[in-house]
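Try it yourself: sequence plus 2-acetamido-2-deoxy-beta-D-glucopyranose, in.
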Amino acid sequence: MSLLTLSVCFSLFSSSLSPHPNTAKKSGCFKVNDCKCIMKDGSGVISLKAMGDVDGFLGRLKPVPADGMPADAEVLLSFSPCQHFSQPEDVTGSDCTNVAACLIVRYHGLNSHYINYGRHEGNEFHYNHTLKMLSVSYFAHDERPMTVVHYHCNPNQSMSVIRVQSLSMEEPLHIWVESPCACLNACAMGDLGLGTIFLIILSLSAAAYFVLGSCALRPFRSSSGVQISPEHSVWCTTCSLCTERRPARRHYADMTHSEQ
Ligand SMILES: *[C@@H]1O[C@H](CO)[C@@H](O)[C@H](O)[C@H]1NC(C)=O
Ligand SMILES: *[C@@H]1O[C@H](CO)[C@@H](O)[C@H](O)[C@H]1NC(C)=O
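Structure, out:
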């Protein structure tokens, strides 16, 4: 709810900023955080959070085809769309510390090199409405992206499927993901925070308070200004409903007598 409001505000803001409103500029999405983007036209949200497995991985030590590598070398990839990870887990200060993608090169099945292939921080989102595909670029050390992941919306897929392009030295590593979570608003509801739910409950009870209050309270003018007091009939009927269920009905009758 709050996200949709935010997106409407955002698109109003951006259209008022640009002197020539351009419909082509309306396509694409704004990055909300490293794991989420919101459509510029306000049509929805894509969250990468639910895309991985229970540990957040989309691929873990997945073999990558590599040209021009020695025959006894093995190239493996680990990738997590939203959750930072470190590999190897028991070693501190490896190049793959708190990364999104890590490339592991093994020689003779013994020596392993861990190469940072992109972090979540500073990633860039591009959405193509025609292809229904969100491309996210992950950077490691310089301006050139190391990994570009193409998340394609596929509602037929029950879980995310990953395909890794052959590794080359000139180009970033491209990964294609077929996932129902790449569709607009498909997996965004799951990560509503407790705070958001609390705020929704709070605003609903505030609304209920004012609606009930305006029915039950009657404003009237007095010498000291406008006063609001409970509508007589509302509280009296509530009270009598309560007291009539209890055997002590005489009590109520006595009280009304003494008031008069
Ligand atoms: C989306 O993809 C299509 C097909 O590749 C391409 O022609 C079009 O220019 C892309 N749109 C954007 C906004 O990148
Ligand atoms: C999903 O399945 C339907 C029916 O089998 C098919 O027509 C459609 O092209 C599929 N969509 C994708 C994105 O594969």
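One thing you can check immediately is this: Residues 27, 128, 130-131 surround 2-acetamido-2-deoxy-beta-D-glucopyranose (ligand 1) (CB under 6 Å).
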